[in-house]
Amino acid sequence: MIPMTLNEIARVVGATMHDVRDPETPVTAPSAVDSREVTPGGLFAATVGARVDGHDHAAGAVAGGAVAVLASRPVGMPALVVEDVQFALGLLARHLLERISPTVIGLTGSVGKTTTKDLLAQVLERHAATVATDRSFNNELGLPLTVLRADAATRYLVLEMGAGRKGDLTYLTGIAPPRVGLVLNVGTAHVERMGGRIADVAEAKGELVEALPADGFALLNVDDPYVLGMAGRTRARILLYGRSPEAGVRAEDVRMRDRARAAFDLVTPSGRAPVELDLMGEHQVGNALAAAAAATALGLDAAEIADGLSAARRRSAGRLEITERPDGVTVVNDAYNANPESMRAGLRAVKALAGARRTVAVLGAMGQQADASRARHAEIGRLVAGLRFDVLIAVGAGDPLAMAEAAESPDQGVAVHAVEDVTEALRLATALLEPGDVVFVKASSEVGLGACARALAGA
Known about the structure:
Blueprint: E1 4-5, H1 6-13, E2 16-18, E3 26-27, E4 43-45, H2 58-63, E5 68-71, E6 79-81, H3 85-100, E7 103-108, H4 113-124, E8 130-132, H5 142-147, E9 156-160, H6 168-175, E10 180-183, H7 191-194, H8 198-205, H9 207-210, E11 217-221, H10 225-228, E12 237-242, E13 249-256, E14 261-268, E15 271-280, H11 284-297, H12 302-311, E16 321-324, E17 330-333, H13 340-354, E18 359-363, H14 373-386, E19 391-395, H15 399-407, E20 415-419, H16 422-432, E21 438-442, H17 449-458
Parallel strand pairs: 4-5, 5-6, 7-9, 7-10, 8-9, 10-11, 11-12, 12-13, 17-21, 18-19, 18-21, 19-20
Antiparallel strand pairs: 1-3, 2-6, 13-14, 14-15, 16-17
Helix pairs in contact: 4-11, 4-12, 11-12, 13-14, 14-15, 16-17
């Protein structure tokens, strides 16, 4: 965050000051929407959510060091009052970018955004000051909060951009216009809210490449036909990446190492270099290639990129997060979110990790799958059986029951259990687990299975 006075901020966002003693007081630290995460010298943005009204926590935020509150009503504390706090944060973020002008890299996709963002950040920060999205703060609030962490020294700003509806990416790229745009894939995540068809998801994701300037780069996954089809929607230069020989940035000689970790030869226009990933699952090759394509567009050579990818570690919780218990049980927490694509990748990665060890899957609902939801859950159940998991615990009523029914196959030998909620899932999993087992926990975030995974990991 570059220092800005309350007066400057009020002018940028069109705010009215209330209870402010000195309008020239500087804001010197990033903004926060959680009063527990306020940094001394920062701004507290009081947003109104479904369960919590940030205005009720204004006093605590100021006591914690906030200079003032960005609010939609007076709060009895130094406040900049605006009509729409979220919109005001976007205005402030755009103003900061105009002052410091870093290279903005925007990335989107149905799966893999956070892992790819983490990989790219770790490659770039070895070479220049880099700010990247924290956790999965990729929406209308999270993106400006990320931007407001940048300062005059920031060279690269890596922004994960989520899209739940058409128009979301147009809004986000309006706040932070990218010079490099990276599209990972098009899948069924949020398909219900986007129109019900995969083509609708592709239309929404393509808003990112439409926002790119002519001298920018559109990085497109050659292995995904929906992403490749976006080539005609951008003015920017196009760089293809993927496992296809047609890709300018590609992987060759992909091989699996111990603990389900992939190695490959990275090929870019600058040369060839070996990569050994520390992340679990063959699907991580695609995420690594996406990060490599962005780094290539920014001028890094193959050896520099390969070194960065090989040194990278998992940064975000709840995404194939592995915990080894003293009794030999391995807990794989992938419960941050779920859709059919990420569920399939996770199940296959866990089986590769387990080898001959006994495997237990604790799976809940995958949200926003529209009219195909029941069929897609049944597909996952059949995959559990086909991969020969030993135990499936299906959590919740409705679609998870379709998953359980599809996994019940006498010739596959899966022990299938259906439970009502997370509490029952934890109780049953705790009772069933044996020393040496590998347990995989995954569902959409609203199911709350992350709590189950953390409890199992700490058992």
